[in-house]
Amino acid sequence: MPIREKSFRIGCGRYLQEVGILQSCGEEVMRVGHAPLIVSGKTALQLTRQQIESSVRAQCPHYHIEEYRGTCNDENASVMVQLARRERLDVIIGVGGGVMMDFAKLIGRFASLPVINIPTSSATCAAYTPLSVRYTPDGCTVGSLHHEREVDAVLADPAIIATQPTRLLLSGVFDALAKFVEIKQRYREGGDCPLGLDFAYEMSKYSFRLLSEKTATCIADLQAGTVSADFESLVFTTIAATGVISGIARGSNQCALAHKFYEITRKLFNRQALPYLHGEIVGVGLLLQNRFNSETEKNGELLELMRRHGMPHRVTDVGVPCTEESFCEYYNRLRDSSAIDETNADECARLNAALRYLWEMD
Predict the structure, then answer these.
(1) Rounded to an integer, what is the distance from CA 217 to the centroid of its chain?
(2) What phi-psi label fits residue 319: left (phi over 0), alpha (psi between -120 and 50 degrees) or beta?
(3) Which domains does the chain possess?
(4) Binning pLDDT at 50, 70 and 90, where does residue 251 land?
């Protein structure tokens, strides 16, 4: 089983998950620098500012807090780099959801500075993974950028994450579930697979089972404001474990049909899809992936969970018109992507059938 990746960036230097962990923020800054630029969205800042600022103020000679409302894009990241240099700041702290996590990593890359991420939701593994999903300033995806260095630290407070809406929890669950289903596209148990993919398969298989068993309980805990052991497990799985899986699988022929569906949707129908979360769109793509994998029967439980909690589960639910024109556009883009071998007639036929299945759900 050959290792095809030159450099496995499996996660972050330090992952800390504990109620009240933000009181250690200043100490974590001082491990890698001394003066942080804290970049956060408005809501996340309201949730965390008191804890972060009191900790940073006690440890660091100076700091700067920047409230940010845009996308993760190169232009605004460059503006933040200039701010950091002007104010002599040497650590980037991202606070918030997936976009803010990716934005902090992008700033850190451009500025060659260490990054500490503080997720306020479990909607994606973005806090952990060494890549940034980039967009234009108006929200169209322009592709992912893999970083040469890992995130230096992640501080996850389950009590803060427990304030997120159910919608965000489910988004993270579906993003994590997709890893196992996507890897299965090419993986065959007992076959000759790259070593990274072999480990990623086993880890994602365990994560899939854990999330399938605990999600319903964790939704009840979230709605009750309870930080249970199951809820802590879900947070760890959707952020840290899924981030590790992503890092190990990279470069090992991992396919990502569900995530390709997400990228195409953001490109073609960005305005219509703007209200929907990453994991919600990936969830619709997950139905496509199961059908492609000849496991349509597994969509039953997913659809039941989606419908029960009002999640989108049809292409029209995420702003995609159910037309023959849009069908052809998705087929052509998916066929030409890295997820499909366009020279393989069987794969192309299965892609056509899987897309038709998804379009006919309307």
Answers:
(1) 22
(2) left
(3) 12-161 (3.40.50.1970), 256-362 (1.20.1090.10)
(4) very low
